[in-house]
Amino acid sequence: MVHFGHANSLRQAKALGDKVIVGIHTDEEITKHKGPPVFTEEERVKMVKGIKWVDEVVLGAPYVTTLEVLDQNDCDFCVHGNDITMTAEGVDTYHLVKSANRYREVMRTAGVSTTDLVGRMLLLTRNHFRQGSAEYDIEKEAKLLKIQQLQSRLGSSNMGQDSAAKSPWTGCSQFLPTTQKIIQFSDGKSPNQGDKIVYVAGAFDLFHVGHLDFLEKASKLGDYLIVGLHTDPVVNSYKGSNYPIMNLHERVLSVLACKFVNEVVIGAPYCVTEELLDHFKIDIVCHGRTPIALEDGKLDPYAVPKTRAIFELLDSGNDMTTERIVERIILHRLEYERRNQAKEKKEIEAFEALQRQKQTHKAG
């Protein structure tokens, strides 16, 4: 997958130099070493190109990064997070560039991983929601029985829901947002005098190529694009089940990482109001071709912009939806479960070996 954790690594990488080139592994390489990818290589290339800190993308990067690859792309060094990535044979994928002192490390974003997101989809959990007095609580105990029953039927592990029994890098499902993180992701620029301001709103859950294509088209209708993000309870009211898969704070960072987006309204009202339009001086309001749910089954959320004749339906030309991504996961459930279990086993073994090396070094 491509999520805000990856975007945060790329943001940190950009701060280490002047140009960021991202190597993308093929579907074949990922399947061999990690298990089936959620997004195809074409989708992943497009998604990574859409991240604001990326300058260039190269498809077909080898799973073990070599010095030849760095030289071919005129790179001074390679950057990765401070988690261990290994081949199917258990080899550190960055051992060559580390030995040559052409490796730099950035902090992995705690609380998010593909493993965890896949787990949320498979187990239909809601403990990632942020609402009411329990906004920052995991509420694991309240959901434990239901999850155990699901696991019994699915034959699965906790899939990233229990940090105590998981990999030190992919186990925790609690993401704690900070204003600093939002500032780091935001470009901090206000619209210029006379700029045409475009507004779109939605869930933008599991940010994907459909969202990316829609936002690119919306951005071309004006000079400054504002995205309104609905709260978790609001999204759940019109999507149902355990949607959104990603909570509001996670979705904020996912959208802010997109190079077509200038600003995000956190917890935007479902109905676009006169006050919102006037406050942000919005010239155009857009919505995609997905169905528009009426508020309380009665109110058109776009009634006000329609009355002002500033509403426009936009066809992104892409039929990808969050639901289709979840369908992919469900369809390949057993493969993903095997992938996650094998990946976490390797990571735990690597972590324990690293700890033993540190202890030996101290003793020596």
TrEMBL record:
NCBIfam families on file: cyt_tran_rel
Pathway(s) served: Lipid metabolism; Phospholipid metabolism; phosphatidylethanolamine biosynthesis; phosphatidylethanolamine from ethanolamine: step 2/3
EC number(s) from the headed UniProt entry: 2.7.7.14
Top-rank lineage group of the source organism: Eukaryota
CDD domains found in the cross-reference section: CCT, ECT
GO molecular function: ethanolamine-phosphate cytidylyltransferase activity
Organism: Drosophila hydei (Fruit fly)
GO BP term (any one): phosphatidylethanolamine biosynthetic process
Cytidyltransferase-like domain span: 1-118, 200-291
Keyword presence, Lipid metabolism: yes
One cellular component term from this protein's GO annotations in UniProt: cytoplasm
Protein name, as recorded: ethanolamine-phosphate cytidylyltransferase
Coiled coil start-end: none
